[in-house]
From TrEMBL:
Pfam families: AIRC
Gene Ontology molecular-function annotations: hydrolase activity
NCBIfam families with a match to the protein in the record: LarB
PurE domain: residues covered: 122-254
Name of the protein in its database record: Nickel pincer cofactor biosynthesis protein LarB
Domain of life: Bacteria
């Protein structure tokens, strides 16, 4: 149950359409459900504005299916699953679930159910230094879309060919938030941070040769950015960057009014 649904429940009670016992029963069906292998947080949307996201790594396809089934039964219309490979997705699809599966093969992530219409204040731009950063970038894109954001891809605009970035300034400057993903030395976030008037969320990726240390070099470079307004998430964490960008694009979450 999210905040909007809770308000509707209280309005229904106020109108005399349901009893006090019915309201109490709805509220008692929370805050979590113990499934044995996991405890499904049923009040996450009420507390934070977004329902719990299923992290697929380390879970079997059947465990993901069970979690999604319970979330769907709780009337969660959009269920985001990250780090889920094709094999697990195929297992769930073969079970004939009641929801549609929108699977992004490159991101190894999926939305079960509806991808909502954008309702944020503006656009989120997802920019990458190169095409090799697309895995984390697509995870960010799918997460942004699942959370109701208009999302624009701006790929392969790294500093090795700065003209590619500068020719897209209109896209960057019209954004409400920018997610900048880069490996190697991770310079893209600093350059974008010096050009735009909105928050920039930097995602170091594990792309690069030996001395990049699987993204550590980009992480340290981004943390030492001299551009103002740049924040940094963990290596390859497209999901975390998108979650933060969505909060920026939906300030009602910060105020608790959904």
């Amino acid at each position: 149950m999210n905040q909007k649904e809770l308000k509707q429940l209280l309005e229904t009670y106020k109108a005399g359409e349901i009893s006090e016992d019915d309201v109490l029963l709805k509220l008692k069906e929370a805050p979590y459900e113990d499934l044995g292998f996991a405890k499904l947080d049923r009040h996450r949307a009420l507390r934070q504005g977004q329902a719990e996201v299923i992290y697929g790594a380390g879970k079997t396809g059947e465990q993901i299916r069970l979690l999604a089934e319970r979330a769907w039964q709780d009337r969660q219309k959009t269920i985001l699953v990250t780090r889920m490979n094709q094999e697990k997705k195929d297992l769930i699809a073969a079970s004939n679930p009641p929801y549609e599966i929108h699977y992004n093969e490159l991101a190894e992530a999926a939305v079960f159910g509806e991808i909502p219409e954008p309702d944020g204040l503006g656009k989120i731009v997802v920019a990458t230094g190169g095409t090799s950063d697309q895995k984390a970038a697509e995870e960010a894109v799918l997460t942004c879309e699942a959370f109701g954001n208009e999302t624009v891809r701006l790929y392969d605009v790294g500093v090795a060919g700065l003209h590619r970035l500068l020719s897209n300034l209109d896209i960057l400057m019209s954004a409400n938030a920018v997610i900048a993903l880069a490996g190697m030395e991770g310079a893209l976030a600093s350059v974008i941070g010096g050009l735009v008037d909105c928050p920039v969320i930097a995602v170091p990726t594990s792309v690069g040769y030996g001395a990049s240390f699987h993204g550590l070099s980009a992480l340290l470079s981004m943390l030492n950015s001299c551009a103002s307004g740049v924040s940094v998430v963990n290596i390859d964490n497209g999901f975390g960057a998108a979650y933060q960008a969505s909060m920026i694009n939906h300030p009602k979450y910060l105020g608790g009014n959904q």
